[in-house]
Amino acid sequence: MVSEKKEIALKRLKIRSWRRGTKEMDLILGKFADANLRVLSQSDLEVYDKMLDENDNDLYNWCSKKMDAPEVYRTLLTKIMKN
């Protein structure tokens, strides 16, 4: 992501947010991406990019608090679930 221009990175992250493996995560992450990616810090964008590589079932369980999320994602997941 460092070598990508910001506009290209934001478009890529939006597409990856809306085209997940499950409809639930499409809606959670897609809506968040549309509303918030432009205002996230560079470090938050990097964490978000990394988080998108995670399994949808894990992501859903973290968002629904059925499982504890890895420390690296907790702050960002709190922002996502406030959306």
Would you give an account of this structure?
The protein is an all-alpha fold. It has one domain (6-82): Flavinator of succinate dehydrogenase (DNA polymerase, domain 1), CATH 1.10.150. It is built from five helices and no strands. It has helices at 6-18, 23-36, 42-51, 56-63, 71-82. Helix 1 packs antiparallel against helix 2 (23-36). The protein is globular and about 35 Å long. The protein starts with 5 loop residues before the first helix and ends with a helix.
Core attributes:
single chain; 83 residues; mainly alpha; DNA polymerase, domain 1; 69% helix
Secondary-structure topology with pairs:
Blueprint: H1 6-18, H2 23-36, H3 42-51, H4 56-63, H5 71-82
Helix pairs in contact: 1-2
CATH class: Mainly Alpha
Question: What portion of residues is helical?
Answer: 55-70%
Strand content: under 5%
Proper CATH architecture: Orthogonal Bundle
Residue-averaged pLDDT, rounded? 94
Going by CATH, what is the homologous superfamily? Flavinator of succinate dehydrogenase
Global morphology:
globular
Number of strands: 0
| Helix and strand element order | HHHHH
Please indicate the count of domains: 1
Largest sheet: none
CATH third-tier fold name: DNA polymerase, domain 1
Question: What gap, in angstroms, lies between the N and C termini?
Answer: 24 Å
Structural class of the secondary structure composition? mainly alpha
How much is the radius of gyration in Å? 12 Å
